[in-house]
Protein backbone atom coordinates (compact mmCIF):
# COMPACT_ATOMS: atom_id res chain seq x y z
CA UNK A 1 0.00 0.00 0.00
CA UNK A 2 1.55 3.35 -1.10
CA UNK A 3 1.29 6.75 0.65
CA UNK A 4 -0.55 8.27 -2.36
CA UNK A 5 -3.37 5.78 -1.82
CA UNK A 6 -3.57 6.66 1.92
CA UNK A 7 -3.67 10.43 1.39
CA UNK A 8 -1.19 12.98 2.84
CA UNK A 9 -2.72 13.20 6.36
CA UNK A 10 -2.77 9.43 6.85
CA UNK A 11 0.73 9.20 5.37
CA UNK A 12 1.99 11.82 7.85
CA UNK A 13 0.39 9.93 10.71
CA UNK A 14 1.92 6.64 9.56
CA UNK A 15 5.40 8.20 9.42
CA UNK A 16 4.93 9.75 12.88
CA UNK A 17 3.82 6.39 14.31
CA UNK A 18 6.79 4.66 12.71
CA UNK A 19 9.21 7.20 14.21
CA UNK A 20 7.62 6.96 17.68
CA UNK A 21 7.66 3.15 17.63
CA UNK A 22 11.34 3.15 16.55
CA UNK A 23 12.19 5.58 19.40
CA UNK A 24 10.30 3.40 21.90
CA UNK A 25 12.06 0.26 20.64
CA UNK A 26 15.41 2.05 20.87
CA UNK A 27 14.72 3.31 24.41
CA UNK A 28 13.60 -0.17 25.43
CA UNK A 29 16.91 -1.56 24.13
CA UNK A 30 19.04 0.93 26.09
CA UNK A 31 17.04 1.43 29.32
CA UNK A 32 14.93 -1.61 29.97
CA UNK A 33 11.73 -1.10 31.97
CA UNK A 34 9.75 -3.52 34.03
CA UNK A 35 7.31 -5.44 31.83
CA UNK A 36 3.99 -3.63 31.29
CA UNK A 37 0.97 -4.17 33.53
CA UNK A 38 -1.98 -2.44 35.15
CA UNK A 39 -1.13 1.05 36.40
CA UNK A 40 -0.89 1.09 40.19
CA UNK A 41 -1.27 3.77 42.87
CA UNK A 42 1.62 5.64 44.49
CA UNK A 43 3.39 3.69 47.27
CA UNK A 44 0.92 0.79 47.54
CA UNK A 45 1.21 0.03 43.84
CA UNK A 46 -1.20 -2.62 42.52
CA UNK A 47 -2.53 -3.85 45.86
CA UNK A 48 -6.14 -3.27 44.70
CA UNK A 49 -5.60 -4.91 41.32
CA UNK A 50 -4.56 -8.21 42.83
CA UNK A 51 -7.16 -10.97 42.56
CA UNK A 52 -7.79 -12.98 45.70
CA UNK A 53 -9.03 -16.11 44.02
CA UNK A 54 -8.18 -18.03 40.84
CA UNK A 55 -5.37 -15.58 40.14
CA UNK A 56 -4.44 -17.45 36.96
CA UNK A 57 -7.60 -16.20 35.25
CA UNK A 58 -6.81 -12.54 35.98
CA UNK A 59 -3.18 -13.02 34.93
CA UNK A 60 -4.38 -14.63 31.69
CA UNK A 61 -6.59 -11.57 31.11
CA UNK A 62 -3.60 -9.26 31.76
CA UNK A 63 -1.58 -11.21 29.20
CA UNK A 64 -4.20 -10.37 26.56
CA UNK A 65 -3.87 -6.68 27.45
CA UNK A 66 -0.15 -6.35 28.17
CA UNK A 67 1.59 -9.34 26.55
CA UNK A 68 3.31 -12.60 27.48
CA UNK A 69 5.38 -11.03 30.24
CA UNK A 70 3.63 -8.52 32.48
CA UNK A 71 4.33 -7.08 35.90
CA UNK A 72 2.79 -5.34 38.90
CA UNK A 73 4.25 -3.80 42.05
CA UNK A 74 2.95 -4.41 45.55
CA UNK A 75 4.31 -1.98 48.17
CA UNK A 76 7.39 -1.60 45.98
CA UNK A 77 7.89 -5.36 45.46
CA UNK A 78 7.92 -6.21 41.72
CA UNK A 79 5.97 -9.29 40.65
CA UNK A 80 6.66 -10.57 37.14
CA UNK A 81 4.11 -12.88 35.52
CA UNK A 82 5.04 -15.24 32.70
CA UNK A 83 2.02 -16.12 30.63
CA UNK A 84 3.41 -18.11 27.72
CA UNK A 85 5.69 -21.07 27.13
CA UNK A 86 8.05 -18.81 25.18
CA UNK A 87 8.43 -16.39 28.10
CA UNK A 88 9.03 -19.24 30.55
CA UNK A 89 11.59 -20.83 28.24
CA UNK A 90 13.47 -17.52 28.00
CA UNK A 91 13.89 -17.54 31.78
CA UNK A 92 14.60 -21.27 31.77
CA UNK A 93 17.75 -20.64 29.72
CA UNK A 94 19.11 -18.50 32.56
CA UNK A 95 17.98 -21.00 35.19
CA UNK A 96 20.41 -20.10 37.98
CA UNK A 97 19.41 -16.41 37.98
CA UNK A 98 15.69 -17.12 38.32
CA UNK A 99 15.62 -20.15 40.62
CA UNK A 100 15.63 -18.66 44.12
CA UNK A 101 12.45 -18.65 46.24
CA UNK A 102 10.81 -15.66 47.94
CA UNK A 103 11.22 -15.69 51.70
CA UNK A 104 8.08 -16.57 53.69
CA UNK A 105 8.52 -15.24 57.21
CA UNK A 106 5.74 -17.21 58.91
CA UNK A 107 5.60 -20.56 57.07
CA UNK A 108 9.21 -20.63 55.90
CA UNK A 109 11.34 -19.03 58.60
CA UNK A 110 9.31 -19.19 61.85
CA UNK A 111 7.59 -22.55 61.30
CA UNK A 112 10.60 -24.08 59.54
CA UNK A 113 9.52 -25.00 55.99
CA UNK A 114 12.46 -23.12 54.49
CA UNK A 115 14.48 -26.18 55.60
CA UNK A 116 12.58 -28.28 53.06
CA UNK A 117 13.36 -28.46 49.35
CA UNK A 118 10.33 -26.56 48.07
CA UNK A 119 11.14 -23.36 49.95
CA UNK A 120 14.93 -23.55 50.27
CA UNK A 121 16.88 -20.64 48.84
CA UNK A 122 18.78 -21.46 45.65
CA UNK A 123 22.37 -22.55 46.37
CA UNK A 124 24.71 -25.40 47.22
CA UNK A 125 22.47 -26.92 49.91
CA UNK A 126 19.47 -27.05 47.57
CA UNK A 127 21.56 -28.68 44.85
CA UNK A 128 22.66 -31.33 47.36
CA UNK A 129 19.11 -32.06 48.49
CA UNK A 130 17.94 -32.28 44.90
CA UNK A 131 20.80 -34.71 44.17
CA UNK A 132 19.52 -37.01 46.91
CA UNK A 133 16.00 -36.86 45.46
CA UNK A 134 17.48 -37.42 42.00
CA UNK A 135 19.08 -40.68 43.16
CA UNK A 136 15.73 -41.86 44.54
CA UNK A 137 13.30 -40.82 41.80
CA UNK A 138 15.15 -38.54 39.37
CA UNK A 139 14.82 -40.74 36.28
CA UNK A 140 12.47 -43.32 34.83
CA UNK A 141 15.01 -46.04 35.68
CA UNK A 142 15.36 -44.89 39.31
CA UNK A 143 11.58 -44.94 39.66
CA UNK A 144 11.62 -48.41 38.05
CA UNK A 145 12.85 -49.89 41.35
CA UNK A 146 9.59 -48.93 43.03
CA UNK A 147 7.11 -50.01 40.37
CA UNK A 148 6.29 -53.27 42.13
CA UNK A 149 5.35 -51.29 45.27
CA UNK A 150 3.30 -48.88 43.12
CA UNK A 151 1.37 -51.70 41.45
CA UNK A 152 0.68 -53.49 44.73
CA UNK A 153 -0.47 -50.32 46.50
CA UNK A 154 -2.70 -49.43 43.53
CA UNK A 155 -4.29 -52.88 43.58
CA UNK A 156 -5.08 -52.37 47.28
CA UNK A 157 -6.52 -48.94 46.44
CA UNK A 158 -8.87 -50.47 43.83
CA UNK A 159 -9.90 -53.11 46.30
CA UNK A 160 -10.75 -50.48 48.92
CA UNK A 161 -12.56 -48.36 46.36
CA UNK A 162 -14.68 -51.32 45.28
CA UNK A 163 -15.96 -51.74 48.84
CA UNK A 164 -16.21 -47.97 49.57
CA UNK A 165 -17.10 -46.50 46.17
CA UNK A 166 -18.08 -43.15 47.65
CA UNK A 167 -14.64 -42.56 49.14
CA UNK A 168 -12.60 -41.81 46.04
CA UNK A 169 -10.95 -38.80 47.59
CA UNK A 170 -9.96 -40.49 50.86
CA UNK A 171 -8.78 -43.61 49.05
CA UNK A 172 -6.62 -41.64 46.61
CA UNK A 173 -5.01 -39.89 49.60
CA UNK A 174 -4.31 -43.23 51.21
CA UNK A 175 -2.78 -44.52 48.00
CA UNK A 176 -0.34 -41.61 47.62
CA UNK A 177 0.40 -41.39 51.35
CA UNK A 178 1.16 -45.09 51.75
CA UNK A 179 3.36 -45.12 48.67
CA UNK A 180 5.46 -42.13 49.70
CA UNK A 181 5.86 -43.36 53.32
CA UNK A 182 6.98 -46.74 52.03
CA UNK A 183 9.42 -45.35 49.45
CA UNK A 184 10.83 -42.70 51.76
CA UNK A 185 11.04 -44.50 55.12
CA UNK A 186 10.09 -48.13 54.46
CA UNK A 187 7.08 -47.60 56.73
CA UNK A 188 3.95 -49.64 56.03
CA UNK A 189 1.03 -47.41 57.00
CA UNK A 190 -2.22 -48.57 58.58
CA UNK A 191 -5.38 -48.57 56.44
CA UNK A 192 -7.05 -46.13 58.87
CA UNK A 193 -5.82 -43.38 61.20
CA UNK A 194 -2.15 -44.09 60.65
CA UNK A 195 -0.13 -42.05 63.18
CA UNK A 196 2.64 -41.19 60.69
CA UNK A 197 0.21 -40.02 58.02
CA UNK A 198 -1.66 -37.96 60.64
CA UNK A 199 1.62 -36.36 61.74
CA UNK A 200 2.63 -35.42 58.20
CA UNK A 201 -0.81 -34.24 57.11
CA UNK A 202 -1.25 -32.10 60.25
CA UNK A 203 2.12 -30.41 59.70
CA UNK A 204 1.35 -29.80 56.03
CA UNK A 205 -2.08 -28.38 56.86
CA UNK A 206 -0.39 -25.95 59.27
CA UNK A 207 1.91 -24.91 56.47
CA UNK A 208 -0.99 -24.30 54.10
CA UNK A 209 -2.50 -21.91 56.63
CA UNK A 210 0.86 -20.33 57.48
CA UNK A 211 1.60 -19.59 53.82
CA UNK A 212 -1.80 -18.15 52.87
CA UNK A 213 -1.03 -14.71 51.38
CA UNK A 214 -2.19 -11.91 53.68
CA UNK A 215 -2.89 -14.22 56.63
CA UNK A 216 0.03 -13.05 58.77
CA UNK A 217 1.25 -9.46 58.99
CA UNK A 218 4.78 -10.66 59.66
CA UNK A 219 4.98 -11.69 55.97
CA UNK A 220 4.44 -8.05 54.99
CA UNK A 221 6.52 -6.52 57.81
CA UNK A 222 9.26 -9.09 58.57
CA UNK A 223 10.56 -6.96 61.46
CA UNK A 224 7.53 -8.18 63.48
CA UNK A 225 9.26 -11.51 63.94
CA UNK A 226 11.25 -9.90 66.78
CA UNK A 227 8.02 -9.21 68.69
CA UNK A 228 7.99 -11.20 71.97
CA UNK A 229 5.31 -13.85 72.22
CA UNK A 230 3.71 -12.22 75.32
CA UNK A 231 3.44 -8.77 73.62
CA UNK A 232 0.01 -7.68 72.32
CA UNK A 233 -0.22 -8.94 68.72
CA UNK A 234 2.46 -11.57 69.38
CA UNK A 235 -0.04 -14.47 69.22
CA UNK A 236 1.33 -15.52 65.84
CA UNK A 237 4.60 -16.40 67.62
CA UNK A 238 2.74 -18.91 69.82
CA UNK A 239 1.22 -20.50 66.71
CA UNK A 240 4.62 -20.50 65.02
CA UNK A 241 6.18 -22.25 68.05
CA UNK A 242 3.49 -24.96 68.06
CA UNK A 243 3.61 -25.43 64.31
CA UNK A 244 7.38 -25.55 64.35
CA UNK A 245 7.19 -28.43 66.85
CA UNK A 246 4.72 -30.22 64.53
CA UNK A 247 7.15 -29.61 61.65
CA UNK A 248 10.09 -31.05 63.61
CA UNK A 249 8.03 -34.11 64.61
CA UNK A 250 7.11 -34.65 60.97
CA UNK A 251 10.81 -34.66 60.07
CA UNK A 252 12.11 -36.62 63.09
CA UNK A 253 9.54 -39.27 64.01
CA UNK A 254 9.37 -41.33 60.78
CA UNK A 255 13.11 -40.89 60.27
CA UNK A 256 13.82 -42.35 63.74
CA UNK A 257 11.66 -45.39 62.96
CA UNK A 258 13.60 -45.99 59.74
CA UNK A 259 16.90 -45.56 61.61
CA UNK A 260 15.86 -48.15 64.25
CA UNK A 261 15.04 -50.59 61.46
CA UNK A 262 18.48 -50.03 59.97
CA UNK A 263 20.15 -50.68 63.34
CA UNK A 264 18.25 -53.93 63.81
CA UNK A 265 18.89 -55.04 60.22
CA UNK A 266 15.15 -55.11 59.40
CA UNK A 267 14.94 -52.02 57.18
CA UNK A 268 13.11 -52.57 53.87
CA UNK A 269 14.40 -50.77 50.76
CA UNK A 270 13.70 -47.04 51.11
CA UNK A 271 15.19 -43.61 50.49
CA UNK A 272 16.47 -43.36 54.08
CA UNK A 273 17.88 -46.88 54.25
CA UNK A 274 19.64 -46.49 50.87
CA UNK A 275 21.11 -43.14 52.00
CA UNK A 276 22.43 -44.46 55.31
CA UNK A 277 23.21 -48.15 54.95
CA UNK A 278 26.17 -47.91 52.64
CA UNK A 279 27.46 -44.53 53.77
CA UNK A 280 30.86 -44.86 55.45
CA UNK A 281 31.02 -41.51 57.23
CA UNK A 282 27.65 -40.49 58.64
CA UNK A 283 28.07 -36.96 59.96
CA UNK A 284 25.40 -34.96 61.78
CA UNK A 285 25.24 -32.62 58.74
CA UNK A 286 24.56 -35.59 56.48
CA UNK A 287 21.81 -36.86 58.78
CA UNK A 288 20.23 -33.37 58.83
CA UNK A 289 20.29 -33.33 55.02
CA UNK A 290 18.74 -36.79 54.62
CA UNK A 291 16.08 -36.11 57.25
CA UNK A 292 14.98 -32.85 55.66
CA UNK A 293 15.11 -34.21 52.13
CA UNK A 294 12.91 -37.11 53.25
CA UNK A 295 10.60 -34.68 55.06
CA UNK A 296 10.15 -32.71 51.81
CA UNK A 297 8.75 -35.57 49.78
CA UNK A 298 5.34 -36.19 51.32
CA UNK A 299 4.33 -32.51 51.31
CA UNK A 300 5.38 -32.01 47.70
CA UNK A 301 4.40 -35.39 46.29
CA UNK A 302 1.19 -36.63 47.89
CA UNK A 303 -1.35 -33.86 47.35
CA UNK A 304 -0.10 -33.11 43.83
CA UNK A 305 -0.47 -36.71 42.68
CA UNK A 306 -3.91 -36.99 44.29
CA UNK A 307 -5.04 -33.86 42.45
CA UNK A 308 -3.90 -35.26 39.07
CA UNK A 309 -5.65 -38.58 39.74
CA UNK A 310 -8.82 -36.74 40.75
CA UNK A 311 -8.66 -34.85 37.47
CA UNK A 312 -8.45 -38.14 35.57
CA UNK A 313 -11.54 -39.64 37.28
CA UNK A 314 -13.49 -36.47 36.52
CA UNK A 315 -12.40 -36.55 32.87
CA UNK A 316 -13.66 -40.13 32.60
CA UNK A 317 -17.07 -39.17 34.03
CA UNK A 318 -17.35 -36.42 31.44
CA UNK A 319 -15.89 -38.36 28.50
CA UNK A 320 -17.29 -41.92 28.29
CA UNK A 321 -16.12 -42.15 24.67
CA UNK A 322 -12.47 -41.68 25.74
CA UNK A 323 -12.93 -44.24 28.51
CA UNK A 324 -14.32 -46.83 26.07
CA UNK A 325 -11.41 -46.39 23.64
CA UNK A 326 -8.83 -46.73 26.44
CA UNK A 327 -10.57 -49.81 27.86
CA UNK A 328 -10.76 -51.41 24.42
CA UNK A 329 -7.00 -50.90 24.00
CA UNK A 330 -6.30 -52.48 27.41
CA UNK A 331 -8.67 -55.41 26.73
CA UNK A 332 -7.07 -56.09 23.35
CA UNK A 333 -3.49 -56.13 24.60
CA UNK A 334 -3.75 -57.37 28.20
CA UNK A 335 -6.84 -59.59 28.01
CA UNK A 336 -9.18 -60.44 30.91
CA UNK A 337 -6.91 -62.71 32.98
CA UNK A 338 -4.49 -60.28 34.59
CA UNK A 339 -4.19 -56.68 35.71
CA UNK A 340 -2.23 -54.38 33.41
CA UNK A 341 1.02 -52.97 34.81
CA UNK A 342 3.88 -50.68 33.96
CA UNK A 343 5.47 -53.29 31.67
CA UNK A 344 2.51 -52.89 29.27
CA UNK A 345 2.94 -49.14 28.95
CA UNK A 346 4.75 -49.06 25.63
CA UNK A 347 1.98 -51.15 24.05
CA UNK A 348 -0.84 -48.85 25.14
CA UNK A 349 -0.44 -45.56 23.22
CA UNK A 350 -4.01 -44.36 23.77
CA UNK A 351 -3.83 -44.97 27.54
CA UNK A 352 -0.56 -43.04 27.52
CA UNK A 353 -2.27 -40.20 25.73
CA UNK A 354 -4.96 -40.22 28.46
CA UNK A 355 -2.17 -39.83 31.05
CA UNK A 356 -0.67 -36.93 29.09
CA UNK A 357 -4.00 -35.19 28.58
CA UNK A 358 -4.82 -35.61 32.29
CA UNK A 359 -1.68 -33.62 33.14
CA UNK A 360 -2.81 -30.82 30.82
CA UNK A 361 -6.55 -30.65 31.23
CA UNK A 362 -6.67 -30.47 35.02
CA UNK A 363 -3.80 -28.27 36.09
CA UNK A 364 -2.46 -29.39 39.49
CA UNK A 365 -0.36 -26.30 40.21
CA UNK A 366 -1.92 -23.50 38.09
CA UNK A 367 0.75 -20.96 39.11
CA UNK A 368 3.59 -23.37 39.97
CA UNK A 369 5.60 -22.20 42.97
CA UNK A 370 6.94 -18.61 42.88
CA UNK A 371 10.59 -18.05 41.92
CA UNK A 372 12.79 -15.06 42.79
CA UNK A 373 15.48 -13.32 40.68
CA UNK A 374 18.92 -13.19 42.31
CA UNK A 375 20.31 -10.53 39.95
CA UNK A 376 19.11 -7.93 37.45
CA UNK A 377 18.43 -9.38 34.04
CA UNK A 378 16.80 -8.44 30.74
CA UNK A 379 14.28 -10.76 29.11
CA UNK A 380 12.62 -9.85 25.83
CA UNK A 381 13.85 -6.26 26.30
CA UNK A 382 12.27 -5.95 29.76
CA UNK A 383 14.02 -5.55 33.08
CA UNK A 384 13.57 -8.37 35.59
CA UNK A 385 15.14 -6.71 38.64
CA UNK A 386 17.03 -8.51 41.39
CA UNK A 387 14.54 -9.52 44.09
CA UNK A 388 11.55 -9.67 41.69
CA UNK A 389 9.11 -12.48 42.41
CA UNK A 390 8.38 -14.50 39.28
CA UNK A 391 5.15 -16.39 38.74
CA UNK A 392 4.66 -18.76 35.83
CA UNK A 393 1.01 -18.96 34.82
CA UNK A 394 1.18 -22.67 33.98
CA UNK A 395 -2.61 -22.80 33.70
CA UNK A 396 -2.53 -20.33 30.80
CA UNK A 397 0.28 -22.22 29.06
CA UNK A 398 -1.67 -25.48 29.32
CA UNK A 399 -4.85 -23.85 28.00
CA UNK A 400 -3.32 -21.69 25.28
CA UNK A 401 -5.53 -22.21 22.19
CA UNK A 402 -2.54 -21.52 19.92
CA UNK A 403 -0.76 -24.54 21.40
CA UNK A 404 -3.80 -26.68 22.30
CA UNK A 405 -6.76 -25.90 20.03
CA UNK A 406 -10.09 -26.22 21.87
CA UNK A 407 -8.16 -26.26 25.15
CA UNK A 408 -11.01 -27.04 27.56
CA UNK A 409 -11.90 -30.30 25.83
CA UNK A 410 -10.30 -33.49 27.17
CA UNK A 411 -8.90 -34.98 23.98
CA UNK A 412 -6.08 -37.56 24.18
CA UNK A 413 -5.90 -37.69 20.36
CA UNK A 414 -3.85 -34.45 20.51
CA UNK A 415 -0.79 -36.60 21.16
CA UNK A 416 -1.42 -39.32 18.59
CA UNK A 417 -0.50 -39.34 14.90
CA UNK A 418 1.94 -37.28 12.88
CA UNK A 419 1.14 -33.72 13.96
CA UNK A 420 1.02 -34.04 17.71
CA UNK A 421 0.58 -31.13 20.11
CA UNK A 422 3.24 -30.22 22.69
CA UNK A 423 3.81 -32.52 25.62
CA UNK A 424 2.26 -30.70 28.62
CA UNK A 425 4.96 -32.18 30.87
CA UNK A 426 7.17 -29.31 29.56
CA UNK A 427 4.94 -26.88 31.48
CA UNK A 428 3.08 -28.75 34.20
CA UNK A 429 6.18 -29.38 36.32
CA UNK A 430 7.56 -25.82 36.47
CA UNK A 431 10.87 -24.48 35.18
CA UNK A 432 14.52 -23.63 35.68
CA UNK A 433 16.58 -25.28 38.40
CA UNK A 434 13.41 -25.79 40.45
CA UNK A 435 11.61 -28.01 37.96
CA UNK A 436 9.71 -30.73 39.85
CA UNK A 437 12.20 -33.46 40.84
CA UNK A 438 9.31 -35.89 41.38
CA UNK A 439 7.99 -35.76 37.82
CA UNK A 440 9.03 -39.31 36.87
CA UNK A 441 7.39 -40.73 39.96
CA UNK A 442 4.29 -38.58 39.38
CA UNK A 443 4.07 -39.79 35.78
CA UNK A 444 4.48 -43.47 36.78
CA UNK A 445 1.96 -43.18 39.63
CA UNK A 446 -0.57 -41.51 37.36
CA UNK A 447 -0.12 -44.10 34.59
CA UNK A 448 -0.45 -47.08 36.98
CA UNK A 449 -3.53 -45.58 38.65
CA UNK A 450 -5.13 -44.86 35.26
CA UNK A 451 -4.40 -48.15 33.53
CA UNK A 452 -5.43 -50.32 36.49
CA UNK A 453 -8.56 -48.28 37.25
CA UNK A 454 -9.70 -48.44 33.61
CA UNK A 455 -9.09 -52.20 33.47
CA UNK A 456 -11.26 -52.84 36.52
CA UNK A 457 -13.88 -50.09 36.80
CA UNK A 458 -16.47 -48.28 34.77
CA UNK A 459 -16.40 -44.64 35.85
CA UNK A 460 -19.69 -42.92 35.08
CA UNK A 461 -22.13 -40.17 35.99
CA UNK A 462 -23.86 -40.41 39.35
CA UNK A 463 -27.64 -40.61 38.91
CA UNK A 464 -30.36 -38.81 40.82
CA UNK A 465 -34.01 -39.79 40.18
CA UNK A 466 -32.92 -41.38 36.92
CA UNK A 467 -31.18 -38.20 35.76
CA UNK A 468 -27.39 -38.11 35.28
CA UNK A 469 -25.61 -35.50 37.39
CA UNK A 470 -23.20 -33.88 34.95
CA UNK A 471 -20.26 -32.37 36.85
CA UNK A 472 -18.41 -29.22 35.84
CA UNK A 473 -14.63 -29.06 35.82
CA UNK A 474 -13.46 -26.20 37.99
CA UNK A 475 -10.16 -25.69 39.81
CA UNK A 476 -10.17 -24.97 43.54
CA UNK A 477 -8.03 -22.10 44.84
CA UNK A 478 -4.57 -22.76 46.25
CA UNK A 479 -1.03 -23.56 45.19
CA UNK A 480 -2.10 -27.16 44.72
CA UNK A 481 -5.48 -27.03 43.08
CA UNK A 482 -7.95 -29.92 43.01
CA UNK A 483 -11.02 -30.31 40.85
CA UNK A 484 -14.01 -28.97 42.81
CA UNK A 485 -15.78 -31.95 44.49
CA UNK A 486 -17.95 -33.80 41.99
CA UNK A 487 -20.39 -36.69 41.97
CA UNK A 488 -19.42 -39.89 40.15
CA UNK A 489 -20.12 -43.57 40.10
CA UNK A 490 -17.56 -46.39 40.00
CA UNK A 491 -18.38 -50.07 39.66
CA UNK A 492 -16.36 -53.14 38.63
CA UNK A 493 -16.67 -53.85 34.92
CA UNK A 494 -17.33 -57.56 35.57
CA UNK A 495 -17.01 -60.32 38.18
CA UNK A 496 -13.80 -61.34 36.46
CA UNK A 497 -12.39 -57.78 36.71
CA UNK A 498 -13.36 -57.72 40.40
CA UNK A 499 -11.53 -61.00 41.03
CA UNK A 500 -8.28 -59.45 39.75
CA UNK A 501 -8.16 -57.03 42.66
CA UNK A 502 -8.99 -59.52 45.40
CA UNK A 503 -6.63 -60.06 48.32
CA UNK A 504 -5.87 -58.08 51.45
C1 LIG B 1 1.21 -34.70 39.05
C2 LIG B 1 2.02 -34.53 40.08
C3 LIG B 1 2.94 -33.37 40.28
C4 LIG B 1 2.92 -32.12 39.71
C5 LIG B 1 1.95 -31.57 38.66
C6 LIG B 1 4.04 -31.38 40.28
C7 LIG B 1 4.35 -30.08 39.94
C8 LIG B 1 5.36 -29.34 40.56
C9 LIG B 1 5.62 -27.95 40.29
C10 LIG B 1 4.87 -27.07 39.29
C11 LIG B 1 6.65 -27.58 41.09
C12 LIG B 1 7.29 -26.19 41.17
C13 LIG B 1 8.41 -26.08 40.16
C14 LIG B 1 8.96 -24.68 40.07
O1 LIG B 1 9.25 -24.08 41.10
O2 LIG B 1 9.10 -24.16 38.95
C15 LIG B 1 7.06 -28.73 41.86
C16 LIG B 1 8.09 -28.74 42.78
C17 LIG B 1 8.44 -29.85 43.52
N1 LIG B 1 7.91 -31.13 43.42
FE1 LIG B 1 6.40 -31.68 42.23
N2 LIG B 1 4.70 -32.18 41.17
C18 LIG B 1 4.08 -33.41 41.19
C19 LIG B 1 4.46 -34.52 41.94
C20 LIG B 1 5.58 -34.60 42.74
C21 LIG B 1 6.04 -35.80 43.42
C22 LIG B 1 5.38 -37.19 43.29
C23 LIG B 1 7.13 -35.45 44.16
C24 LIG B 1 8.01 -36.30 45.04
C25 LIG B 1 7.63 -37.35 45.70
C26 LIG B 1 7.37 -34.02 43.95
C27 LIG B 1 8.37 -33.29 44.53
C28 LIG B 1 8.58 -31.94 44.33
C29 LIG B 1 9.57 -31.15 45.05
C30 LIG B 1 10.52 -31.67 46.15
C31 LIG B 1 9.49 -29.85 44.54
C32 LIG B 1 10.33 -28.63 44.95
C33 LIG B 1 11.51 -28.49 44.01
C34 LIG B 1 12.37 -27.28 44.33
O3 LIG B 1 11.89 -26.34 44.94
O4 LIG B 1 13.55 -27.28 43.92
N3 LIG B 1 6.41 -33.55 43.07
N4 LIG B 1 6.25 -29.81 41.52
UniProtKB/TrEMBL annotation:
Recorded hits in PROSITE patterns, A to Z, give:
CYTOCHROME_P450
* Keywords for the protein's UniProt record, in alphabetical order: Heme, Iron, Metal-binding, Monooxygenase, Oxidoreductase
Name the source's superkingdom: Eukaryota
Annotated binding of heme, by residue: 436
Pathway linked to the protein: Secondary metabolite biosynthesis
What's the cofactor?
heme
Q: Does the keyword Heme apply?
A: yes
Q: Which GO terms describe its molecular function?
A: heme binding; iron ion binding; monooxygenase activity; oxidoreductase activity, acting on paired donors, with incorporation or reduction of molecular oxygen
Pfam families for the chain: p450
UniProt-listed PANTHER family: P450, PUTATIVE (EUROFUNG)-RELATED (PTHR46300:SF7), P450, PUTATIVE (EUROFUNG)-RELATED-RELATED (PTHR46300)
Q: Which family does it belong to?
A: Belongs to the cytochrome P450 family.
Q: What is this protein called?
A: OrdA protein
